[in-house]
Amino acid sequence: MKKEIQIFDTTLRDGEQVPGCKLNTQQKLEIAEALESLGVNVIEAGFPISSPGDFASVKAIASVVKHSTVCALSRSVKKDIDAARDALVHAKYPRIHTGIGTSDTHIKYKFKSTREAILERAVEAVKYAKQFVEDVEFYAEDAGRTDNEFLARVCREVIKAGATVLNIPDTTGYCLPSEYGEKIHYLYTNVDNIDKAILSTHCHNDLGLATANTVQGILNGARQVEVTINGIGERAGNTALEEVVMVIKQRLADSYSTTIRTEQLSGLSQLVSQKMAMPVQPNKAIVGENAFAHSSGIHQDGVIKNRENYEIIDPRDVGVDTSSIVLTARSGRAALAYRAKECGYNLYKNELDVAYAKFIQLADTKKEVGQDDLQSLLTNLFSTTH
Ligand code: KIV
Ligand code: ZN
Fold first, then answer.
1. Domains of the chain as residue ranges with CATH
2. I want to staple 55 with a disulfide (CB 3.0 to 4.6 A). Which of 32, 48, 250, 268 is the partner?
């Protein structure tokens, strides 16, 4: 039987921590509604204790979202958990996400504490949150650099205290895919009460490994992935939702599924980019402007013969109408003929030779020969014959 991977979107919390990306309540609401329509299982709406504005945003989102779980972040601090509880009061499916740093680095330098004291705080926080909501997620911050044996102990104890989800963040984007996969496997096999909770990935992209690490997490027993649209987030960002979802759809569909309506991915990427004033890099996997654009002669010829020669995803599956053939100085005759035909010019071979000679001269002077350039080139050459 296929295992369904829960998609936990943290665009509005971890994603919004990016400098300059702050959203107001109205903007957050619009994105939350789009995320629900996309089919995400959990929306992490914010960190209510952090500001009155974020509290209001979480509360507003909790009031309108009807199908997805709405989650609020807190530290292992009672007043944080109280704020999360109050902000989630109208949520149909509320989740409190609480946690604490568990790596020796965090314990020594951030908390000036000991493993035993941290374990105690973790358990207390989960027990406290559990009084208010059934669904409590625990994060072991910097789990990527946490000793596995201690991490397993923390997981065991917080599950006993009532945690339903164990978030294993690679907070600093430190792990190699093999290490992160082994960590999830270790927890899956060494935490004796793991059947009472699910493991979640939460990978940062400091070494560009966030998606690879998340996939290794899935393959080793994680049943929830924490992701953001366009991979936005602190520093180099979080795991991109669209990448993990499409890895599952294109490569792992025999064993795993998600509830995501992938044809909404491109539109949502643009919505988030626009609201956060954060452009998407053109070569970004799945949602970048060039993800389905072909500009070199060899590739264009291959795509025109059959799209699958150079594309492993049907662009319509992610909400892009069609692949594009971009005309540049690297383009060949096949591409020019194809684009000319789109402009209404079905060129004979000798006409194509003439047009190509003109085209390549023009292309050498510009980055791209656009639709208007092409149209005027063809009109000048063939308006009397076509
Ligand atoms: O990266 C991280 O560790 C986090 C936690 C607060 C969940 O974002
Ligand atoms: Zn994070």
1. 3-276 (3.20.20.70), 293-382 (no CATH)
2. 48
Q: How are beta strands 42-46 and 94-101 bridged, if at all?
A: unpaired
Q: Which of 17, 95, 141, 158 is the best mutation target for the ligand 1 pocket, counting ligand atoms within 8 Å of the beta carbon and taking the most?
A: 141
- Ligand whose nearest atom lies closest to the CA of 169: 1
Q: Which atom of ligand 1 is nearest to the CA of 13?
A: 8
The angle that helices 52-64 and 78-87 make with each other, rounded to 10 degrees, is 40
* DSSP secondary structure code for residue 106 in this structure: I
> Which runs of consecutive H residues, i.e. helices, occur in 220-348?
241-251, 265-275, 297-305, 333-342
Cβ 141 under 6 angstroms from ligand 1: yes
In a structure prediction context, what are the per-residue pLDDT tens digits for the chain, which is 386 residues long?
A: 999 999 999 999 999 999 888 899 999 999 999 999 999 999 999 999 999 999 999 999 999 999 999 999 999 999 999 999 999 999 999 999 999 999 999 999 999 999 999 999 999 999 999 999 999 999 999 999 999 999 999 999 999 999 999 999 999 999 999 999 999 999 999 999 999 999 999 999 999 999 999 999 999 999 999 999 999 999 999 999 999 999 999 999 999 999 999 999 999 999 999 999 999 999 999 999 999 999 999 999 999 999 999 999 999 999 999 999 999 999 999 999 999 999 999 999 999 999 999 999 999 999 999 999 999 999 999 977 77
Question: 3-state DSSP call for residue 197?
Answer: coil
> Hey, which of 8, 17, 170, 171 would you mutate to test ligand 1's pocket, going by the most ligand atoms within 8 Å of its Cβ?
171
Distance in Å, CA 340 to ligand 2 centroid: 48
Cite the DSSP H helix spans in 44-89: 52-64, 78-87
Question: What is residue 71's three-state secondary structure?
Answer: strand
CA nearest neighbour of 137 among 169, 166, 105? 166
Q: Is 14 in the pocket of ligand 1 (CB under 6 A)?
A: yes
